[in-house]
Amino acid sequence: MSLLLSPTNVGGLSLNNRVVMSPMCMYEVKKEDGILTPFHFAHYGMRAISKVGLIITEATAVDPDGRITKYDLGLWNDEQAKHFKKLVDWIHYLGGKIGVQLNHAGRKAADAIHPVAPSAIAYSRDYRTPNELTIEQIHQIVNDFGTAAKHANNAGVDVIDIHGAHGYLLNQFLSAVTNHRQDEYGGSLAKRYRIVHEVIQAIKQNYQGPLWIRLSLTDYDDSGLENTMDDWKQVGKWMEADGINLIDASTGGLLNKAPNFPVHDGYQTSFATKLKQSLQIPVSTVGLLDNPGLSEYILQNHQADLIFEGRALLRNTNWLSDAAKELHDHHFKPFNDSYQRGQK
Ligand SMILES: Cc1cc2nc3c(=O)[nH]c(=O)nc-3n(C[C@H](O)[C@H](O)[C@H](O)COP(=O)(O)O)c2cc1C
Questions:
Q1: Exposed (0-12), middle (13-18) or buried (19+): which is 232, by Cβ within 10 Å?
Q2: Distance from the CA of 194 to the center of ligand 1, in angstroms?
Q3: How far, CA to CA in Å, does 56 sit from each of 47, 91, 163, 227, 287?
Q4: CA 266 – ligand 1 centroid, Å
Q5: Residues of the chain with pLDDT under 70
Q6: pLDDT for position 270
């Protein structure tokens, strides 16, 4: 029996296997109201039927101006929450588990007329220069995360995954490259972490389930200003103390820069492993892990605790069945007997 496809208890959650559907924006909310559409029920439902261990929804905004685009999901109002509960029930009915990724896009809110950020520095020439957040606005955003967590809690989600990566608002605060503030939310690493600490507390007031966070462990920057792995280890320790149950380790997105080495299968895993070695809590990995043998190798060698699959699951909803064949894992059972008949 493979580790990849066998049950586990990790990050505060029991799962049927170690494959997680990585959060991926679908930009399918054509009405621009942040509400789930039939597309989402089919899209996520299919992954539950194909037995993905945990589905994490695409980045779901806590505030209208926190959307990456106006076609994103939102969880700031009751109507959105009502539909979200239906999705959670739907996935549970199909035997799956589902988490929500909560996000504020900050300066990368492409459709916001007045985007906000820790400092007034634009992401690139194609993006508006954001307004520097006032202290009151920061408190409001912290509250918005708390409100979204209340909706997620009422919906019965299995996990909340805070989006602290890919250059969105919390990542912008954590980095000295994008956070030039002189007040209590900027300066030292501890001060840059303050908003994340407050967001965690605000979420925990309304939700006591497993709480995960996605981080970008490098910005592929050579200015000397980016957080080092030692900084991320310190941040990880604070998160552990704050009650985070798993760090979902990714990279990049803060700056308009690609990896500064040839991208290869599992190219982000060494970052996850370095963090994992200095923490008690589990760390997951993501990024070009389409090859099930590589994913199994990572798990067998304790390089990470869970495998997130993104594009592989967009291409192939039956990725787990195919992985079972490749790994000669005869314990993996498709959704029902009819699907079993599709197995050669
Ligand atoms: C279409 C698309 C949308 C994405 N949207 C998100 C997102 O909403 N939140 C997030 O954390 N990452 C997002 N990502 C990044 C993926 O979750 C994943 O980290 C990345 O694709 C690398 O994994 P992969 O090689 O398995 O695809 C997105 C990726 C794709 C391809």
A1: buried
A2: 26
A3: 11, 11, 11, 26, 15
A4: 14
A5: none
A6: 98
Instruction: Give the per-residue pLDDT at 227.
Output: 97
On whether the CB atoms of residues 76 and 144 are closer than 8 A, the answer is yes
Which residue, by CA, sits nearest to atom 29 of ligand 1? 24
Bridge partner residues of 159 (DSSP): 99
Q: Residue 22 Cα, ligand 1 centroid: separation in angstroms?
A: 6
With 0-12 / 13-18 / 19 or more C-beta atoms within 10 angstroms meaning exposed / middle / buried, residue 37 is: middle
Torsion sign, CA atoms 327, 331, 332, 334? positive
Residue 285 Cα to ligand 1 midpoint, Å, equals 12
User: How far is residue 157 from each of residues 38, 68, 91, measured CA to CA in Å?
Assistant: 19, 22, 10
| Cα separations in angstroms, 241 against 185, 200, 232, 238, 274 | 19, 11, 14, 5, 19
The predicted structure's pLDDT at residue 159: 98
Cα-atom radius of gyration of the chain, to the nearest Å? 19
Residues with CB under 6 A from ligand 1: 22-25, 58-59, 101, 163, 165-166, 214, 250, 286-289, 309-312
Which single residue is written with the structure tokens 């894992």?
A: 329
Please state, in angstroms and as integers, the Cα–Cα distance from residue 255 to each residue in 48, 222, 258, following that order.
34, 11, 9
What domains does the chain contain, in order, with CATH numbers?
8-340 (3.20.20.70)
Residue written as token pair 């920061």 = 138
**Dist. CA 129–CA 229, nearest whole Å:** 29
Q: Which atom of ligand 1 is nearest to the CA of 286?
A: 23
